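FORM 7B - TANDEM STRUCTURE REPORT

SECTION 1: FIRST PROTEIN
SEQUENCE AND TOKENS:
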Amino acid sequence: MTALLVVLGVVVVLAIIGTLAGRRNRAREAERREHALAPVRRLAFEDVTALGEELQQLDLELAGRRLDEGERADYQRALDAYEAAKTSADAIAAPDDLREVTKVLDDGRYAAACVRARVAGEPLPTRRPPCFFDPRHGLSVTDVAYRPGGGAEREVPACALDAERVAAGADPDVRQVQLGAKRRPYWDAGPAVEPYAAGYFASSMVMNAVFAGLLISAMSPGLDGMDGGMDGGFDGGGGGYDGGDGGGFDAGGFDGGGFDGGGFDGGF
């Protein structure tokens, strides 16, 4: 009987040890995943913040103006896209979720461009992919020849300012990402970039013509590569984000810099 009790006691102790070890492993895995997702979320909120600031500026431009039906519809589309992007960014649980955020942001920027065109009495802008050098620059206006990373020359979409820079032989305003002690263009930033780029460029030839080759060399499978490579946080290049407060962004309670679309009364 004593021997049986000893055996049972050992079994119970081993079971407890196994349970505690399993909990610790699951906790470490959850912590690792959250650590790996942190830069992905920062990247998303950074872009949401940029659209919020653009809509704030548009709100000021439209102050006191009564919008017609088309202008009002496009303006509402831009506001809805901003809100949807905020919601999607808050819900990011895996790197691929970033794709939906950037896709909606691209829709919002196009809607805002349509508002400006309508107000100015100009034709609606052609739906083009965003600027390759930094999607926050908005719609591209032309394609330019560029050698990303010193590789093969490719035709990439560019905003007006970056097109001028490239034509003049100057460096375009490339979005930079901080990887440890180094800064790299966003397209060479590892696994988080593929869904980020896919949301912006999936509907164009850019993903196949430009990003496919670049991302294959930059990516490593799973979250491990991102955890090891993106530990240093993001530097938003021209946007001024350096891993600090993001210009008013707090990952725990993002409000897009205070923009809620409520300040504009032009026809609503």
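SECTION 2: SECOND PROTEIN
SEQUENCE AND TOKENS:
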Amino acid sequence: MGARPARRARSRWSLCLAVVAVLAVGGCVDNTDDEDPPVPKVPVTVVPDIAAALPDSVRSSGRIVVGVNVPYQPNEYRNAKGQIVGFDVDLVDAVAGVLGVRAQFVESSFEKIIPGVQAGTYDMGMSSITDSREREKQVDFVTYFNAGIQWAQRPDEPVDPENACGKRVAVQSTTVEHTEEVPAKSAACVAAGRPPIDMKAFDEQSGATNALVLGQVDAMSADSPVTAYAIKRTEGRIEPAGPVFESAPYGWAVAKGSPLARPLQQALQHLIDTGVYLQITRNWGVQDGAISTSVINGAVS
């Protein structure tokens, strides 16, 4: 996510098979979810005044093409039926409903989402992307959630995120944790004459989680909702390491100056004001990151 700038199916099967002899059922993290009951969709209705502001291209096609990267539970992932689901998905579906169109989700590697938005391949990017000032140079963002960073550790093997020099730390590749947070902590270690953090980057968040479960790393760093979900799914095999920190907004990416930004923001604000947004966050257990106001380009750093 991000925070993921955050979030890959070939490796998950080989990893799960490799550890089946040493892990009990539920110990290996998959990128699908066939254990929990389906999360109900919250009904919405079209708001014509907001829908009228849609760009002609979107209105005429009747769809918003959304670039998304999976898996990144609980925000976006494939369920047992192969459908892309999650908190982000339900929220974008609801926004599309307010705008009188449908969301068409197109899977992409994470690092190609913003270039795809810039090139017009996607109308928007939705993948737990942290709205940062650096990214705002490339695209505009409509903020929809507030996420922090949360580390995890194995029980009885404590790791201090602020004193992790020399530790092995798993992250998902291309996330903020991978590109900014852990490298900055590692550089501070080196500057203090201590060993750097041994960062291990994985293509999938499930790979990072499994590495921690198996003891291949000492800790992992991910967006707060992602870590909370991983802790829940591993049933006590990992636990939080320190508090949530460095909270920042998630944003939907659109092309710089895109006329789609304003109706997306207004539709989301409508959902916030009517309570639908909060209901969706509660459905997925991520209400701690709920926002009260959506803005365009709300980066804090």
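SECTION 3: OBSERVATIONS ON SECOND PROTEIN
The chain is about 30% helix and 20% strand.
Strands lie at 63-68, 77-78, 84-85, 102-107, 124-125, 139-153, 168-172, 198-202, 219-223, 239-255.

SECTION 4: SIGNATURE
Preparer initials: ____
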